[in-house]
Amino acid sequence: MMEKCRLVFSGSGGQGIITAAILLAEAAVLHEGLNAVQSQSYGAQARGGAARSDVIIWDKPVYYPKVIQPNVLVCLTQTAYNKYHPTIRPGGLLITDTALVKVDKSAEARLAWLPFQDQIKQEMGNARGLNICVLGAVAALTQIVSIPSLESAVAGRFDERFREANLKALHMGIALGSQRSSASV
Amino acid sequence: MMEKCRLVFSGSGGQGIITAAILLAEAAVLHEGLNAVQSQSYGAQARGGAARSDVIIWDKPVYYPKVIQPNVLVCLTQTAYNKYHPTIRPGGLLITDTALVKVDKSAEARLAWLPFQDQIKQEMGNARGLNICVLGAVAALTQIVSIPSLESAVAGRFDERFREANLKALHMGIALGSQRSSASV
């Protein structure tokens, strides 16, 4: 029996948080035969530049689309980390960025604190693709969707001018997540 | 007191349904100071090519992000129309396309049956921008967000190569919706 996977992607507007969440949901549903709901709540925090997107993936129908306590929490700003890391389930997985977030290691969660932004900037020359890179790490670390499923979702999302760069970002994230997942915590 | 506005955008994958819903939510929140939630459920119907996105906009916090009975229903395929038009609230508004959907006029809703796709194809040479055109009509017909708010959201979404075409599509939709809303039902 599959455990219900509750993910929260958090960061700031413009980082492509929502796109990452939608692509994960699409990969799960269209290519893995699972069910998914994906939602955004917008309010005062969005006017301050914050972005958050929730995804729930399960092999049964999912009715309530918001995540209270995530199994998997992605934080791409310090503000998002400070706000959401207390909500992660004990034993959950926190995925965050070495350049963007200073972590407090007392959280009762596995930690994947990885240099997404540094690597993206080094390889791409700017921070575009950060969201897709992180998405690759989410897949490598959680195995909630297969890599070919995610490649299909990403390839289908971007037209040919951007496809190759995004697939490259995805594979950078998969490599980062794979290294992390084989290391001791 | 503002009435809670529950919208469902429905159609097929690739029509940009989700993007339209997100842009409407962003316009409401970032530029109108309202609250919004926006969600997608994916499941068996998505594997058949169907797409649906829900948006709730209100001046109070919104907790439950799914729409059961929409006030405003957008249908861009016959399948979506057949499935969802029975769910519209009495007195609600149905927005659909003359080329894509044959309507059964017995629905207890106001009907905006407009030539979005024909006009987009005629002006743009292909069906890209259909989602943004429909979004313009939603704004003109419902006045849930102002036109400048929606222009800002659309302009912020697309990089400069695509911005002008999308703003043009938006204004085509606003014109279609404005004509319709001033006509007798």
From TrEMBL, chains A, B:
The protein's Enzyme Commission number: 1.2.7.3
Record-linked SUPFAM superfamilies: Pyruvate-ferredoxin oxidoreductase, PFOR, domain III (SSF53323)
Domain of life of the source: Bacteria
Domain Pyruvate/ketoisovalerate oxidoreductase catalytic: 13-174
Keyword entries, A-Z: Oxidoreductase
InterPro entries from the UniProt entry: 2-oxoglutarate_synth_KorC (IPR052554), Pyrv/ketoisovalerate_OxRed_cat (IPR019752), Pyrv_flavodox_OxRed_cen (IPR002869)
GO molecular function, one term: 2-oxoglutarate synthase activity
Protein name per its UniProtKB record: 2-oxoglutarate ferredoxin oxidoreductase subunit gamma
Organism for this UniProt entry: Desulfosalsimonas propionicica
Lineage: Bacteria, Pseudomonadati, Thermodesulfobacteriota, Desulfobacteria, Desulfobacterales
